[in-house]
Design brief:
This protein has 6 helices and 2 strands. The chain is mainly α and about 150 residues long. The protein has a two-stranded antiparallel sheet. The longest helix is centred in the last third of the chain and has 29 residues. The two termini are about 15 Å apart.
Length: about 150
Amino acid sequence: MLLTFVQFVFVAIIGLPGQLDRTRPPFFLKANKVPIRRWLVNIVLFFSINSLNNHAFSYDISVPVHIILRSGGSITTMIAGSLYGKRYSRIQIVAVLLLTFGVITAAVSDSQSKVRRFGLDVRKTRANQECRARQAPKHRKAPALGLAW
């Protein structure tokens, strides 16, 4: 959560100089060209995606695989674009399919290497998770947002 907040503040500070206008006291901010509601969607998406990306490390994913998995969004972008009527060339489609194949191969390879390296058995791992869940404190926590209820 702290990492996400620091990223959020960093991006805001980097973008602030481009939004300043000396002729508009008391806050010296330029007038909005785009309605604030449109920006709020981007802000919420940015914060949510970064929170979820940082939360992914709690699943014992290695950093290289995490980076590789994050690069696999091209296929969803292409599918969404085609739903909205965008056309793609054959070379673009082949490139995205190869990228997706590479991402899947890397993820499967990493999971198999962990099984071999640590001698993990999926059934034992699930049993351990269930046991830990029964022994966990009664309050629940949403780790991506740092909230407890």
